[in-house]
Amino acid sequence: MKIRFLGATGTVTGSKYLVETDRARVLVDCGLYQGVKQLRVRNWKPPPLDGVDAVVLTHAHIDHTGYLPALVRDGYAGPVYCTPPTQALCRVLLPDSGRIHEEDAAYANRKGFSKHHPALPLYTEHDALRALESLSPIEFAQEVAIGDLHLRLQPAGHILGAASVALRGPKGTLLFSGDLGRSDDLLMPPPSPPGSPRWVVVESTYGDRLHASVDPLEVLAEIVNRTLERGGTLLIPAFAVARAQSLLYCLQQLFARGLAPEVPIYLNSPMATSVTHLYERFPDHHRLSAEGVAELQAGVHFVRTVEQSRDLTSRGRIPAVILSASGMATGGRVLHHLRSLAPDNRNTILLPGFQAPGTRGEALVRGAEHVKIHGMQVPVKAEVIQLDCFSAHADQAQLLDWLRACGTPPRQVFVTHGEAVASDVLRREIGEQLGYPALAPEFRAELTLR
Q1: Does residue 47 have a cis bond before it (omega within 30 degrees)?
Q2: For the chain, what percent of residues have pLDDT higher than 90?
Q3: Under a CB-based contact definition with an 8 Å cutoff, are residues 253 and 217 in contact?
Q4: How far is CA 296 from CA 202, 249, 291, in A?
Q5: Number of structural domains, the chain?
Q6: Which residues constitute the domain of residue 349?
């Protein structure tokens, strides 16, 4: 069995792993690169994926699925295995991604700020809709044969439908952690233990740090109160999947307990709106009761249309909380809110999670005085806060605990899906604390599993 690391090496984006045996070629994840330009340009260079028999998705986030429309457009016609919630989420996320690519290209052409003439989308909404036809949902623990490999998915926490991927071959099992959730997540159950894989590919988003031991409600209450006392608006760039719903849950609890004055909550993301409704459809994939799901949505102003979004943006500073995608401020409606609210020091921009290098979110966290939005330099005078207590990723201790639960020590652990320092720190801790051989592979490394 061989594995090629075609993404998510030295970075948290672009997840792609090609597993090859004598009788099978399986691509685990098909993610889009985001962040700095030297990574984004890889999206335009097709990876070596000829002859792939099957694709398996760990979960629906774009850094794990966002290249799939391009792969299918360019000729892939095989199955794409995933859990039913992942299929449902992809039906929301991938067409939206295609629209954003088209809209960004069209906007660049209208304003003339692209270096390419004309600017073209990486793929279109039509390409994404075609890709959805390839999705083949399977349940947790269901086995599927792909040549001489046997595929099985197991719960990973993190978001609805997220899975770890086990590929059992003639010489043993290769387990991909996918993105692992937290054992103390507000909405999601903890990841299932890994079993006894011979080889493990583990993510390392938070491989070099621990989550703060704080009460997220207390922290959020302080931020909301401070912003409202200034007469400002709280803007939260939030991922449409999981992060937005966790924040809605906390805000509802905040107001219900009287920890902050109740103000309107606007969810300005059609994608996040659709995802929120999926919690009703998949009750066995999260912690909330039916009553809890109803409370999650009570009183929230769902901003669906472009006209409603423009109206909200035109109001400028108002006593309210606005959640809008994307979570790293790389695109979407949140950019219009940033243009409107960032120049006012009475407002607050809350970044509730990891911000990849090269993104606007990371620039804001670094204290940038200006950020470029739609070709314009926008001054940043609003208060900027980053919090990790809302992250849906396991931290270093939780990653090590998950690996420690292996029934037998794996022969090799491959540390991926983290920035270079985070991956290297986790690699070292795996060796020192657990005694497992561990390495952080380089981009496009090809290794034989023996």
Answers
A1: no
A2: 79
A3: yes
A4: 32, 5, 9
A5: 2
A6: 216-386
Distances (CA, A) of 383 to 191, 225, 266, 368: 35, 13, 20, 12
Asked if 83 and 161 touch (Cβ cutoff 8 Å), the reply is yes
Q: What are phi and psi of 99, to 5 degrees?
A: -60, -40
pLDDT score at 70: 97
List Cα–Cα distances, 138 to 68, 95, 148, 271, in angstroms.
Answer: 18, 22, 19, 23
Hey, is 150 helix, strand or coil?
strand
Q: Which residues of 24-52 are buried (b: 16+ CB within 10 A; e: fewer)?
A: bbbbbbbbbbbbeeebbebbeeebebeeb
In contact, 160 and 139? CB cutoff 8 Å: no
Residue 152 corresponds to which amino acid? Answer: R
CA–CA distance, 361 with 354 (Å, rounded to integer): 9
Tens-place pLDDT, residues 162-204: 999 999 998 999 999 999 999 989 899 999 999 999 999 999 9
Q: Of 386, 412, 434, which closes a domain?
A: 386
- The two structure tokens encoding residue 323: 């959640």
Residue the block writes with tokens 């605990």:
401
CATH number of the domain encompassing residue 350: 3.40.50.10890
Measured between alpha carbons, how far is 238 from 383 in angstroms, rounded to an integer? 17
Nearest by Cα to 114 from 125, 124, 106: 106
pTM: 0.89
Q: Which three-class secondary structure state does DSSP give residue 323? A: strand
Average model confidence (pLDDT) across the chain: 93
Q: Please write the tens of the pLDDT for every residue from 1-42.
A: 999 999 999 999 999 999 999 999 999 999 999 878 889 899
CA distance 216 to 391: 11
Residue-wise pLDDT for 77-111, tens only, equals 999 999 999 999 999 999 989 988 898 888 778 87
Last residue of a domain, one of 340, 355, 386: 386
Bridge partners of 81, per DSSP, are 56, 136
Kindly state the DSSP code that residue 213 receives in the 8-state scheme: -
67 neighbors 92 (Cβ within 8 angstroms): no
